[in-house]
Amino acid sequence: MSGYPGLSGRTIVVTGAARGQGAAAALMLAGAGARVVATDVAAEPAADFSDTSVEYRRLDVANEGGWGDLAAFLRATLGGVPLKGLLNNAGITHRSRLGRIERSDWDRVLAVNVTGAMLGIQALAPLMGDGSSIVNVGSSAGLTGHYPAAYTTSKWALRGLTHVAATEYGPRGIRANIIHPGFIETEMTAGAPAAMRRSQLELTPLERLGQADEVAAVAAFLLSDAASYMSGAEIPVDGAFTSSAGAKYMADRIASEGAAAGS
């Protein structure tokens, strides 16, 4: 894929890659010629990685020891070549409001969504060099006051971690950016209430939900040399949902009521 220069033959780690966005990214990166180490807490991936350059390894991102094991594996197999990239895609949600969320659920979401990314950066940045890239997967919830308290908080925190990484590792030539997907059709969003899906469509100017490959394409771009001077950037992939900030819904209601009044 000429659109993703600098990936062929290089190694990239993708977390949360057993299915959904992570699997889509792993397959897209492999298609661009990268060696992809796909990780997830699941024992086996739901995605089919056969006949690709994707290697699957089990990893609980909230487990510091697991990251140490992965770093040791990469150190032994990289042959002195720097690790090209880390895509921190692993994430979980918990749809509970602030007044109702249990401490254990709060801790679990932040452990995976924020601490997991931090541990990954700590463990793998020493294997990176000039031209390497860290990409964190945030959410439109990290740009708004979305109601799931723990999930929203975790994605806002991930924004801060991204900017810290961009600042700290920039002198080594390592870039760090964050993507903010909107409502993407994956297994995680499949259980969303019907009212949430309807509302999302009403609030999204492109008037459709997103696909995992659309997020994967932006991740691949940021991991590639095509984005060689991009660091500290936050990129929504949400059909203008956060850009519109509800204005679409308001405009549609005004137009609808105006048409009704004139009929």
Automatic annotation (TrEMBL):
Annotated Gene3D superfamilies: NAD(P)-binding Rossmann-like Domain (3.40.50.720)
PANTHER family reported for this sequence: 3-OXOACYL-[ACYL-CARRIER-PROTEIN] REDUCTASE, SHORT-CHAIN DEHYDROGENASES/REDUCTASES FAMILY MEMBER
GO molecular function, one term: oxidoreductase activity, acting on the CH-OH group of donors, NAD or NADP as acceptor
Source organism: Subtercola boreus
Entry keyword set: Oxidoreductase
Source taxonomy: Bacteria, Bacillati, Actinomycetota, Actinomycetes, Micrococcales
UniProt keyword Oxidoreductase present: yes
Cross-referenced Pfam families: adh_short_C2
Descriptive protein name: 3-oxoacyl-ACP reductase
Protease is among the record's keywords: no
Similarity comment text for this entry: Belongs to the short-chain dehydrogenases/reductases (SDR) family.
Highest taxon above the source species: Bacteria
SUPFAM superfamilies from the UniProt entry: NAD(P)-binding Rossmann-fold domains (SSF51735)
